[in-house]
Amino acid sequence: MDVRISGVTKLYEPDIRALEDVYLTVPKGEFLYLVGQTGSGKTTLLRLITREVMPTKGQIAVGEYNLRKMSAFDLALYRRDLGVIFQDFKLLPHLTAMENVAFVLDVIGVPPAEVKERTGEVLERVGMWRRRFLRPPQLSGGEQQRIAIARAVVNAPSLLVADEPTGNLDTHTAEEIMQLLLSINASGTTVLMATHNQFLVDAYRQRVLELHMGRVVRDEKRGRYELDGDF
Amino acid sequence: MGTFRYVLRDTNRLLFRHWGLSLLTLFTAVAVFFLVGSSALFMLNTRYLVARVESELLVQAYVKNEAQLQTVADKAHKIPGVASVRWVTTAEAMERLKTRLKGHAQALTILGENPLPPSLEIGLARAVLAPSVARELLAMPEVDDVIYAGGLADKLARVSRFATRFSMFVLVIAVTASALVLFNTIRISIYSRRDEIGVMLLVGATPTFVALPFVLQGMLLGMGGALGASLLIGGGYEALVRGVEATLPFVQLFRDPSMLLRLGLILLGGGITVGWISSWMAVERFIRRALRPM
Q: What is the CATH number of the domain that holds B64?
């Protein structure tokens, strides 16, 4: 799915401006890094795309969906085609790693045999098959992150939104997760990734969009991390 | 099929994860529906008693002469609320008096000619109609006098009205109470799983899919409460009827197994409906709020 954002402004309070007049087009199959200081508007931009937040002004369209106008049912259909990796993982602590992944397929009514097969495949892919019966509190941060990624991609989404997927991970694990996201992107999924990880952005060069105080200050093809907003 | 299994599994989880709360709700629902059923039975018994007395309540119209009985009977049939009209000739009146006096019937010979007037015994559809029927009869030129148990009729009508109103009042209070209890139970269940619901909605579950286990939980609790109450009422009422028959043979309680079965089915339907509506209201409100973007 492609993403088209035009003239989007988001105010949380009359005097709290999270985004201002943002224009962005992400073609289908592209990998985009969102960079910027804390509070620059990266998470708000991603939450606008998941439709957890509504713009104060402007339009957002993803694929065939106009996010301004959609019924609850259309929203459900849209989100089935969207994979989200949350900054805080949002794993359900009472379910095992495998159940957390299978849950996504369960709630959209996938037959049990298919749930088992697809869950197994994706857990192998993220290297968590052997740890599948453990619950989130029994897993390390990196392992929880892998489960969150497995859950985000198990439904083969057209668009993957990742908010700091390598935050708090060691370099080695972060690299493994990056490889995983790139392989998902290579299969045709559009990926939007908000990150502070300079090493990854510089090592795996992709399009970079920099936000500073809610405004787009840089949009570079195969860019580097280095923040303009620092100057 | 996957959806169906998921909903059943989840409903089971909801009911047993907070089993103490489920049990408390179930007991409350039993108590509430027991109250509803008992007040319905009270109303049925009052109506039964009123109907029995009403069926025996007669308006006696004394006619000036026997030749006019047919005319008055024809006119009486046309009065609204008249269920039956029976002639009592002077001879029949005398026979009845003799039967009532038994051993003293000889005394009647001193009366010479039969002084008892001919009359019509008029049965009523409802006791409350007695005064108006009596007024219409009195207005007929052929009728000499009208006698009926006016006070009794009025009292019966008042008791019947009170029983109906009281039962309706209990019904409204009980249904509201059970709806509130179920509503709060479902709300607590939803609150304990708010993170899960949030994730469900974010990964593409439809509102209906999210709501189904909670609605089913509410319906099952409502149904369980009504079923428990029906069994208690069924068993308890049978024991009450037997006890009253043994100790107070002149008091006749309403006894109709098919009516008790119908009452049980109505309670069951009511329990399911109240559970469905209250849980749907609780879960729908939560989902609507969760789906609303900031």
A: 3.30.70.3040
Distance CA B293, CA A73 (A): 15
Domain count within chain B? 2
The domain of B263 spans 2-53+157-291
- In this structure, the answer to whether residues B65 and B28 fall within a common structural domain is no
Give which of B148, B82, B88 is closest to B120, Cα–Cα.
Answer: B88
Find the CB nearest A79 among B203, B209, B293: B203
Instruction: Choose among A129, A147, A135: nearest CA to A93.
Output: A135
Q: What is the pLDDT of residues B55-82, one digit of tens each?
A: 777 888 898 888 888 888 898 888 888 8
pLDDT, chain A, mean = 89
Q: What is the CA radius of gyration of chain A?
A: 17
Residues B173 and B267 in one domain: yes
CB contact under 8 A, A84 and B203: yes
Q: Give B206-243 pLDDT, tens digit per residue.
A: 888 888 888 888 899 889 999 999 999 989 988 888 88
**Boundaries of every domain in chain A:** 90-156
Chain B residues whose CB is inside 8 A of the A106 CB are: 2, 6
User: Smallest Cβ distance to B196: which of A72, A75, A92?
Assistant: A92
Taking only the tens place, the pLDDT of each residue in B118-151 is: 888 888 887 778 888 888 888 898 888 888 876 6
Q: Which residue, among A64, A39, A154, A104, has the nearest Cα to B205 in the 3D structure?
A: A104
